[in-house]
Specification:
The chain is mainly alpha-helical. Helix content is 80%, strand content 0%. The protein is built from 4 helices and no strands. The radius of gyration is 15 Å and the shape is globular. The chain starts with 6 loop residues before the first helix and ends with a helix.
Amino acid sequence: MFRNLSLEARILLLICSLDAVTSAILFASNMAVEANPLLRPYAEAGPVPFLLAKLLTYIPTILLAEKFAQRRPRLVRPLMRATIVAYLGIYCYSVGAQFLVG
């Protein structure tokens, strides 16, 4: 299933997975808090509920984007690339802000 994914989808899956795992570790160590109010209850419930909730948010979204990319690659591929850049920027800013300000 994941073997036929585009490079963009694979990168997004990697980034999202790394974000989820590092976030769960930081939450468990009380070094960070979940800023997203929709995911906060799962983060407070522990690593397993948080990781499951996180997986259920990004895997279907990426797979749906891949499906749309088959029909409109000139639209979706650049959007996926922009998402990669934005996700990395927001992640670095938000994680950095917690450690520099907090």
